[in-house]
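Retro notes
What went well: the complex prediction finally ran end to end.
Inputs used:
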Amino acid sequence: MSGEENEFKTVKAKKRKSTDKLMDSMDIGAAKRPNFPPLSAEKSASGQKNLRRIPVPANRYTPLKENWMKLYTPIVEHLKLQVRFNLKTRNVEIQTCKETVEISALQKAADFIKAFVLGFSVDDALALVRLDDLFLESFKVTDVKRLKGDHLSRAIGRVAGSGGRTKFTIENVTKTRIVLADINVHILGSYQNIRLARNAICNLILGSPPSKVYGNMRAVASRTVEQL
Amino acid sequence: MTKGNPQEYVKQLKEEVNDIELSDHELDDDKHTELLSSIGVNVDVDKKHKNKQVRTEASRDVSVFSLLGASGDGTQKKVNLNQLLKGVKESANVNVLKKQLSRVNRPQRHLEAPLPKPVAERLQRKVEYQKTSEKLAKWDPVVQSHRKADHISFPLTQPPLYIKTVDKQLSRKGKKLTPLEEEIYALLRGNKCVERPDHDLTLQEEEILASVSLEEAQERRAELQKHRALMSYHESKSKRQKKIKSKKYHRMLRKRKMKEDATKEDDDEAEDAVKRAERMRAEERASLRHRTGSKWARSRAIMAKHDKDSKELLNEQLQKHRELVTKPLPDSVESDDGVDTNVNANGEDNLYSSENFEIASSNPWLRTNVENKNGKQIVENGGDPVGNKETASDNNEEHKMDSECENESNLDEPKQKLRKWLSSEDTDLDVSKHALDISSSDAMVKFKEAYDKLQHEISSEKKTAPDRAENVFQDLKEETIEEDKEMQDGLNEQCNNAEYDVTVRSQPLQILSRSSGESKSMKVDTDATKSFSSATKVSEQEAEFVAEEDLEMGSEARQQMTIEQAFADDDVVAEFAKSKREIVEEGKPKVVSLALPGWGEWGGVGINPSKRKRRRFRVKPVPMKPRLDQKLGHVIINEKRDVHIAKHQVNDIPFPYTNKEQFERTVAQPIGSTWNTQSAFNSFVKPKVDTVMGSIIPPMNSDEALGELKKASKWKEDRKKLKRKHEHKNKLEKLKMFL
């Protein structure tokens, strides 16, 4: 056998391309299936207009106005809802309309606005719209322990840390966002993470030193990671 | 006197006569000279310059006796008292005079009054300055060289560095050598391999040289050289090949090697290769490696919508799979296939070989004619059938004509011909006739006759009805079509050539009609842009020339079209105006509404903020300054040009660079150490002046600095000398060769 005989020459495939065939068959199958599109939000609400009101405190009025377009666009374009800021009552009102696809969009939008009003940044709050398994949790420092005067201040100070260091650390380790507004604490995150962060914050309020809280938190976090 | 030569005698006689004649004058002259010398005037000089005309100037010191006057040279000579006294020899009271004179002549005893202080100082300063500047002038070259130098490091004279050699160590006096040192010394001295300071070669080398004959050595050296070269070639080649990252290349290389191996080795191995190939095929069939299912392939498939490359990549992979999976066919089938493809290729060739066709479609000059031929031409109104008909009939003529006349139709021919036609002064009908005269076929002759007939009609009856012309051409067409059909089948190939000629032939007619239209438009049109676009090439003169003859021949629409065709690219003014308008529009500030949708009223997908609100929050732009080029019709001034940036930009490409890209590349080249080798970076950032830390920088030593200069100049001279020597030697050699 010489070298030329040994060489491989391409021969045009006489068969139909298998991929094309597959695609075609799939198309046909899809066409034959019964098609039941999901009910629109308005229909599922049996024609009633759903409305949510989120009150805006005075201290969040200016930030709301500044960030209004950032809040407005995802609600209108992504969630297909109608929204207005009622200047008289100082409420953000959200309602469904014909274009609304999902009924759950209303709740999402309400949570989104609520989170912003509580003090989270727009980008953080937007995660509530994007992801389904995120929650908001709020509690007061005084709920954990009855503290008054300097003791209360110190407890809040412990949670925040110098320059907000402790708060940041907790946020980073637990993958949550925390807003500390006077005695109110708001946590944004998934259920597990919120629990972790809440534990840490409660321990701090109760008086344990930050170093100890870090240690515990680290251990728990690593354990949860291993579990996953 | 009596003796001697008669000639001499005559001469003497003559002299005597002369003497007698001159004697009176001589006497006078002598006395005069004596007198003059006694006064102190140089007689010789005076004699010399007696006849010289002296230009005199008005001067203050003019004396009656011209004693103070300038001598011929212009140098003044003072008359001494002694000279004057020569004439007073015989006077009686000489002694008295002498005494008086001696008193006058006595050197002055008193000192001159000192100069006033400032004057003296000034003089001193002047002298001093001259001296110092002379002294300092010798430093000028040193200073210049330092200024010009790219880099200077201080202190200028650094102590010479040298390595202490063993010899020098050993040669130190008064110190005993240790036994080890002695041993080493003895070894070094006694060894044959040690380099000797006064010889190029060591002893051993010399011995070797002596032992081998020159020819042998040369041969061996050549052999070794060749071997080394081959080795290095091989090495570099394999290195290069190894470096190539292309998988495809390596695959091909491997295949080639496999092929070579197969040819080299026996059949068994070849079979082995086949087996291997089969195995590969089986593996390919078993695996899904090159199919669409892999993660990569799926991602490509998703990307394929946006990215052409990924699509191609996918296809490539599929192709590869197909290649690997296909069974190698026996040779006979292959060859059949090959023939098929060849045939296909030929077919394609036939289809597309007529590049003329393509060019015709791309060339706006020819496009219309092609269209004409295809009968896509719009139906003309009654006024203008001529040009079109002519083209059509002409077309038919050409089919026949081309079989006989030359095939060489240059692609640019029509254009060129038209240009020529445009440029020629006498744009008569004759020219168009001439254009028609090219061929000599029967059909052509017929056509010509018809044409002449038409022309005759035109000239005889000033108002020729277009119908008439049409008739003529229809007749002609009928005649020609019959012949045409016979030939047409065989001449399809030359069709394209024909088209060109048709274009040429039809062009004059079109132009005639066009120019007539032009002459009209000239009078009416005053718009600058239009005249710019249409007026340039066809001059008014031409238009007038032809206007009378073919007023009837053209219609406005046709003319317009042809003009547009001819000067399709020339509408520069309108283009410019358009671009300027665009730029101005772009630069204008826009009205912005800052109304927040949904703030105070419902906002959603279909809802726009109310008009009232929009109007309320509308922000009117601040009126800008009028543009600099607002009133200049033909100028665009870029107002965005940043002066601060422009400072760092160049207008022209600096010297060593020839084009923009080169320069930009070098400028874009970073000079940081991250992107350059350390040495290059160092050279980039080298400071002009460099000092060695901690060392004293003394003022320059004059001897050293000036000596260095001298040395440098001497070195230069030496080099020159050497060069000269070398040249001389070369010349000599050449001479020898020549001899």
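What we learned: Chain A is about 55% helix and 15% strand.
What to try next: split runs per interface for comparison.
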